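U., I forgot to send this yesterday:
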Amino acid sequence: MVIAAPPVRVLLAGEEPDLGAVLDQYLASRGHRVTRVADGRSALRALRSQPFDVALVSSALADLDGLEVLRQAREGTVPPECILTTGRGTLDMAIAAMRLGAYDVLARPYRLPEIEALVRRAWEKGRQASDSRRQATRLSRLDAVPEIRTVHPPLQAVLALAGRAAQAGVPLLIHGEPGTGKAALARALHRASPRGGGPFVEVSAGTVAAARQVAEFFGIEGSARGPATPGLVEQAAGGTLCVEDVERLDAAAQLALSRAVTRGRYKRVGAAHRLEFDVRLMATTSVDLSHEAQLGRTRPELVAVFSSVVIALPPLRDRAVDLAMLAEGFLREVGGPGAALSADAIDALQRYHWPGNLQELRNVLERGVLLSRGAVVEARHLALRVPVAGDGGPPAPVTLAELERRHIGATLERTEWHQGRAAALLGISVKTLYRKIREDGFQRPGARA
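Result:
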């Protein structure tokens, strides 16, 4: 069973009737929820009355300028990611749209699969921003304690190197599998550095459209059409700029960032004069940048920038000595001071392979606390696939179908089997949830078999 991507709530504003109908039908056929309006004022009314993930706004609206609709759309409390479509695209229009916060500008004619992929990427960026806001309290609490806790000697040596590197001003690359704590370590190194009193600006390279990356990093020069827009480099001046998944930068952005570091100067988009590059650059990656450069996927200039200091974080499966300590620490955070692990739960944790590393450990314990409904979390609450006795190898991989089943089960437990709330949290209809309950054989607690 394949878990389908969730539908995107799309507002389609002002496209020509024939093209709009085709685009509406195509996006709906791809599983998205499309609301189509004919003009700018109708688009603004729709935005005020219901939430949207992505707004496709034509620049040629009958009643309002497309840029004005874009401006008002982006001023909302939870604004959608906006894509401006145009049949007469110019550089000035693209710059104005980006200054107003557009995710991208798309010139007609365009291919339907291209715009559907763009909608999906815009939705992903908005979702990650929303997740970041929801987790701000949790992250601030985690920032108050040491980010990397370990008694594992190799990792202690790595952290000693990291502490010394924090005092230097050279660019720094943190390498490790997803979930090993790369971003948390970057925040700690910033605070320990001479720039610790300055701003710490984070950006995930994969959430910024390739066409906007240079402008996102370096800003846009002011003109008669509007004031200057500072980029991330300017926002991080005097502090640290951390680029997560740096290998996902577009080639042009990789080159521009590398040149800014080596020259110590940069220019906003459209500017004639240069500004000082007053930023400590950090980056995280899960891949070998040198190998990526050999394959032509990463600029050699970017590899050279990060050649001085590379900090490699080991995966959790290599830190068995740390597991009990880490589990107890996470358990106190998610379950309170009275939460505890049973002996069989500790055994299950120690025999699991942890492909998702620290992030997976935290998620497993959070789920265990929800399912236990008590102070003691047992192995059955963790839902881990571990090797059988005598088998020292890694556990069998968990299928997508099994992951989906576990997620549905945990959500039903969390909502005390209120199927309406569970369906809303899962992003599916109550009818679909009922079908999955029947197909997967879920039993309400206390129900007769």
